[in-house]
TrEMBL record:
Similarity remark: Belongs to the ABC-2 integral membrane protein family.
PANTHER family: MEMBRANE COMPONENT OF ABC TRANSPORTER YHHJ-RELATED, TRANSPORT PERMEASE PROTEIN
Xref: Pfam families: ABC2_membrane_3
Membrane topology: Multi-pass membrane protein
Designated gene of the protein: ybhR
Keyword Manganese: no
Spans through the membrane: 16-38, 239-260, 291-312, 324-345, 351-370, 409-429
UniProt main location, coarse: membrane
Name recorded for this polypeptide: Inner membrane transport permease YbhR
A cellular component term, taken from the record's GO annotations: plasma membrane
UniProt organism field: Planctopirus ephydatiae
Length: 437
């Protein structure tokens, strides 16, 4: 019976298209819509920034040059603040930075505390405190991240200017702006103290230099930090770590439609009635009917993850062996739910209505279409009533953690097995009560 059903499944290519081809198409389309192509390259356009500079002193030009040096920022120079604002209003740029004529004078009024603690110093009043204005395009995705990146570069320009005027941090900023040898010479000459003597300022700077340097480093990261480039290199892989498990879990439950139609066809041909009067227990019949769909479902999950590895450079996590129990438990839950649905529906129209609606509804609630972290806390709690959510939790722990959280994986597998047992038991009860329609 199992071999017969498996041959029938493999003979009909339409279910295989639904289970294998459609998930790959969805993953590829959504991946490309986020800027990640099949090769893993990032094709998203760089953010566009219009800058108008009304400051005739050096600080304004330094800030403009800083933004122009960013390879991941498309800078357009506007002749006036009005033109920059117009570019934003027309949607031709993502943001506009207007540098006022008093920018240099306002920066000269800043102290070191204003830079290291901008929330409580002169900068607490916003960019207007230093005669700057930033306007972002309405509806801009990740607007706050864009604003934070621009403000970070602003601090990288302002901090050295202010730091060189402070006795405690002067030598640090002079050294960072020159070679180590030149920095040592300039630092020693700037204090004007003989080598065998130590001035109070030197003593204070010696004690406070490490603290101030670390504080400045944390507030103003260097331009050549390797950490900043790492997310960009792995951006495509990170996207598919969300897309591949999400769409895999969603489409693996589409097996419920195929199972329901198979049961309806067997019932209409009278095969189920003949099996029920045969000396075979009902549980044996259901296991035999469910097993081929379980094998197809498990093959589907494996092939989708292999495709994610080959085509989308998706990582399998630090310990891929944990994917095996998660795949098995996910397929068990899907086929058990398919068995329950097959014993409930009476017509092919009901399969199309109930089965498809059920799959889409459970997928949307559980977080198959987006990262679960984006769901509100209430929705995350509600989604735990679906097997999809526990599959996603298990796959997320395996794929996106540096160390697999084994208890969470085991818990997810246990809950999925509980769903499988509940669905199979309910389907068993329904099957015994079935009558030919």
């Amino acid at each position: 019976m199992t071999i017969k059903d498996l041959k029938l499944l493999l003979k009909d290519r339409r279910p295989l298209v639904t289970l294998l081809v459609l998930p790959m198409v969805f993953i590829a389309i959504v991946g490309m819509s986020t800027g990640q192509l099949l090769t893993g390259g990032d094709t998203r356009k760089a953010p566009r920034l219009a800058i108008s500079n009304a400051d005739t002193s050096e600080y304004g030009n330094m800030l403009v040059e800083r933004y122009q040096s960013r390879p991941n920022l498309d800078v357009q120079i506007a002749t006036s603040a009005g033109q920059a604002q117009s570019l934003v209003d027309l949607g031709r740029v993502d943001g506009a930075l207007m540098i006022g004529p008093e920018f240099t004078a306002k920066v000269d009024e800043l102290g070191l505390r204003d830079v290291l603690d901008p929330d409580h110093g002169q900068l607490s009043g916003g960019l207007s405190a230093i005669d700057l204005s930033l306007d972002l395009r309405p509806g801009l995705v990740d607007a706050e991240m864009f604003r934070a990146a621009l403000l970070s570069d602003l601090l990288k320009v302002i901090a050295p200017i202010v730091g060189r005027r402070n006795a405690l941090t002067r030598r640090f900023f002079i050294a960072s702006a020159t070679t180590p040898e030149d920095g040592d010479n300039e630092a020693s000459s700037s204090t004007e103290v003989p080598s065998n003597e130590t001035s109070p300022v030197d003593a204070a700077s010696t004690k406070g230099e490490a603290a101030s340097s670390s504080a400045v480093d944390s507030a103003v990261p260097t331009a050549d930090q390797p950490v900043a480039a790492k997310p960009k290199e792995n951006a495509a892989a990170n996207v598919y770590l969300i897309l591949v498990p999400g769409f895999t879990v969603m489409f693996v439950f589409f097996v419920v439609n195929i199972m329901a139609r198979s049961f309806l066809a067997e019932r209409d041909r009278g095969t189920l009635d003949r099996l029920r009067i045969a000396p075979i227990p009902a549980s044996g019949i259901l296991i035999g009917k469910t097993l081929p769909f379980f094998l197809v479902s498990l093959t589907q999950v494996c092939l989708l993850f292999v495709a994610g590895k080959l085509f989308f450079q998706m990582s399998w996590g630090p310990d891929p062996v944990w994917l095996i129990p998660m795949m098995i438990c996910t397929s068990l839950a899907a086929t058990s739910l398919g068995l329950l649905l097959a014993t409930i529906v009476q017509t092919d129209q009901q399969v199309a209505a109930y089965g498809t609606s059920l799959v889409i509804l459970l997928a949307s609630i559980s977080g198959c279409f987006m990262p679960r972290d984006w769901l509100p806390p209430v929705m995350q709690t509600i989604s735990l009533a679906t097997p999809h959510a526990w599959s996603l939790i298990g796959f997320d722990v395996i794929l996106t953690r540096r160390v697999v959280d084994t208890p969470v994986v085991l818990q997810s597998c246990a809950v999925l097995l509980g769903f499988s047992l509940a669905f199979f038991t309910a389907g068993y009860v329904r099957f015994r009560a079935m009558t030919r329609v």
